[in-house]
User: Which sequence fits this backbone?
């Protein structure tokens, strides 16, 4: 049975790379993990998601060709096609582990958020006509 993939809404969030990009390792083979469909090597990067005054870190898996090679820590990014994949795993002793994996089709750089432009000074603070220097004679 395939894992259920739940689309992850990103429209109102801001994302920033929180770690460097690393090759994902298959824990059973200790080799680089690959996409089951395409065979492409997978990479992981932790993203800091900022939304409504709070922040969370998501460890996201992405095809290697879809991550900028020189992605630096703190870069503003946008995960494309981000999905959450709930999982449950038996530990063999009757206990279960559970969690959520995150997968994106790509990671794209974004422009940093610009600082707000200061409002122009009010006209009351400035004279309406320039002050001219005049000479006085005695």
Assistant:
């Amino acid at each position: 049975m395939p894992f259920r993939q739940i689309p992850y809404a990103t429209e109102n969030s801001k994302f920033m790379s929180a770690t460097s990009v690393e090759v994902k390792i298959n824990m059973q083979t200790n080799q680089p993990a690959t996409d089951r469909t395409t065979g492409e090597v997978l990479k992981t990067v932790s993203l800091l998601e900022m939304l409504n005054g709070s922040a969370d870190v998501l460890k996201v898996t992405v095809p290697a060709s879809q991550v900028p090679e020189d992605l630096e820590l703190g870069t503003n990014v946008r995960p494309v096609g981000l999905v959450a994949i709930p999982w449950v795993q038996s530990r063999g002793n009757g206990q279960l582990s559970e969690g959520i994996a995150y997968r994106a089709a790509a990671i794209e750089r974004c422009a940093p958020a610009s600082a707000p432009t200061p409002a122009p000074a009010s006209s009351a603070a400035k004279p309406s006509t320039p002050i001219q220097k005049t000479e006085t004679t005695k």
